[in-house]
Amino acid sequence: MWGQMMAKQENTLKVATLKALSASDHKTTLSDGGGLSGEVRIRADGTPAVSFVYRYRAGDKKREKRLGTWPEKDLAAIRAERNHLRQMVANGLDPIEEERKAAEIERQAWQAAEAKRQAEAAEAARLAARMSYGDLFARYRAAHVDKLKSAAEIIRRHQKDVLPAIGAIYADEVTRQMVAAVGQRIADRGAGRSAHLTLGDICACYKWAIDTALLDEGQNPAASIKKTRIGNTSKMRDRVLSEAELKHLLQSALPACSLTPMAKAGVRLMLATACRVGELLRARWADINLAAGTWTIPAEHAKNGQAHVIHLSRFAVTAVEELASCAMSANWLYPNTTGQKHVCIKTLTKQIRDRQKGEAGAMSRRARDTSSLILSGGDWTSHDLRRTAATLMGELGVMPHIIDKCQNHVEANRVTRTYQRQEYMAERKAAFDVLGERLALLANPDAANVLMLKRA
C-alpha cells in the first residue's frame, strides 16, 4: 500500500492537466514528485509547454538536470529518465558528473579515431607518392644527369644493368644486398671498373633523392658498400674467434694490453651485444637504461636506419658500469677530446689493429704495443667480434631468425618483412643472456674446466 502511495505521489501530473494549462498558469511550477518538477510556459500561439528538471543532492551539493520539454518529449519518457537518474543517485553516483565523464571518454575516443584516420591518410599519401627505383632515376635524370658530360654513359649503365635488376622495386625498399648484387654481376663478367662506376651512379641517385626530400635521410642502400670489395670475394671476411681464443683474449690478452679501460670495455661490449663498432662509438648515455637492462640504438645511428633495442646481459652491464666509472662526458660513452661529439668511429678498429702488427712494427705516432692482441687464429677486427657473437649464439642453440633480430638485420624476403612484424623481444633477451653467461664463463680464470663448444 505504501509503495502504491509513493508511486502515486511521484506521478501526480496528468497529461490532460498539462493540455488544459492556460495563460494564467504562465511561469508557474508544477511538481510530479520524486524530485521532478516543470516550469510552465505559454507560447505565442496559446499552447502550453512545460520544461522539466530533476533536482537531487550529490554529497553536499544541490544539483539539477534538465530532462526536456513536454509536449515535444513524452511525459512517460521524462519520468523514465527521472527514475533512471534517481537509481544512479541511490547508488552513490552523480548523474551530471557521470555524463561529463562519458562525454570526456567519447571525446578522447573521437580524438583517437581522428588521429588514427589522419595517420592512415598520411600513410596512404606516402604510399601513393612512393616511386620505383626506375621512376626515381627518371626524375634524377631529367633534373641532373642530362646536364652532365657523362650523361650518355650513366644512362647506358643504368639501362643495361641497373634498371633490369631493381628498376621495378620501390626505391625505399631497395637493399644494399640488391645494389651489391648489381655490382657483383657486372664485375663477374670482367668489368670491374664499370661495376664501381655503376655503384657510384646508384649512390649519387639516392643522394640526390635525399637532398631533394624525395627520400628520408639514411635511405641510401649504396652508401655503405665498399666498391673495392665488389668482384674480389677473397677479401670477404669470415673470421670467427674460437672459444679458446676468446678465453685467452678475455682472461689474458685484453687485461694485459695497453688499450685504455674504455677501449677494453668496448671490446667486451661488442662481444656481448653483437653491435657494430660505429654503433658503439656513437652511443649516448641517454640511450642506456641500466634499470631496464637495455641499450637503444636510435635509427640515425643504426646502419639500416631502424632503431634497435639490445638487452644488456650481466656481462654487458659490467662493461657499461666500467665505462661509467671513467665517463668523460655526460652525453657520449666515447667522447672526442672536446667532449662535444663522439670519437671517430674508426678509432677502436685502429687501436685493435695496431696491437696485432707484430714484427711489422708500430706506425708513426701510434701505439708502441704491437703484439698484445695477436691471437692464434690470425688477425681479427672489431667487426669479427660481431660475427663471433652471432656464431656463439648459434652454437648455444639460439635460432637463426632470433640472431638476425639481435643483430638488427632486415628480413630479406619482402612478403615476410611486410606481414610478419613480430620483434621476439623475450627471445632476444634470452639470447643475449645466454651469450653473456657464456662470455662470463670464458672470462673467468677460476673456471678452469670450461667445456669448449665444438664448431661444425
TrEMBL record:
PROSITE patterns for the chain: TYR_RECOMBINASE
Domain Tyr recombinase, residue spans: 236-433
Matching InterPro entries: DNA_brk_join_enz, Integrase-like_cat_sf, Integrase_catalytic, Integrase_DNA-bd_sf, Integrase_DNA_bind_dom, Integrase_recombinase_N, Phage_int_M, Phage_Integrase
One Pfam short name: Arm-DNA-bind_3
Keywords: DNA integration, DNA recombination, DNA-binding
Keyword set includes DNA-binding: yes
PANTHER family assigned: PROPHAGE INTEGRASE (PTHR30629), PROPHAGE INTEGRASE INTS-RELATED (PTHR30629:SF2)
Family: Belongs to the 'phage' integrase family.
Protein name: Integrase
Species of the source: Vogesella fluminis
